[in-house]
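Hey Z.,

So I finally got round to the flavin mononucleotide thing we talked about over coffee. Here's the setup:
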Amino acid sequence: MFYEPSKGHGLPHDPSKAIVAPRPIGWISTLNRAGEINLAPYSFFNAVSTRPFIVWFSSEGEKDSASFAQETGEFVANLVSRDLAEKMNRTSVNAPRGVNEFVYADLAMAPSRLVAPPRVAAAPAALECKVTEVFRPKALDGSPTSAVIVAGEVVGVHIDDAFLTDGRSTSPKPAMSPV
Ligand SMILES: Cc1cc2nc3c(=O)[nH]c(=O)nc-3n(C[C@H](O)[C@H](O)[C@H](O)COP(=O)(O)O)c2cc1C
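And the result:
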């Protein structure tokens, strides 16, 4: 089949997310100026540069993770192994602002070193990031979309030593977003 996304696909489900899949999940922890902690998964997430090490995530609509990151200029991108998938899913709850999803999903926090938001203690890796850019991608006709892309330079990297073998880091079975 062929379809033009702006004209519809005629299928019962939108295939766009399934086409670009699987995707890694950035499990984004943030803190706002009031000190409220937030944790949520973002599969519109990836690393986009190595030197400097830059990652970004995209919020469809300005959700708490994007607004907290903009407020304080910091976020942590925790990586999700498959054994954490269920808890990661729980943290996608549409909770009112101020609800700490670490507590809601029964996840231990660990302090970060160079940024204020805590990280997920059990995550195989966690990237401490400082926001470098926030932008709203435009549609072809120049109209604004609802997406907010938050990019950050990784200023600190945590790797669980269990995943270091002979100086190389190996990946645990990742939890990926299938669609
Ligand atoms: C596996 C998974 C991936 C997700 N990826 C995204 C994403 O890339 N962008 C987005 O806006 N929402 C995504 N969501 C939904 C958000 O996690 C959800 O809306 C959450 O409540 C946002 O929390 P926040 O307002 O605390 O940032 C995803 C949910 C799950 C379970």
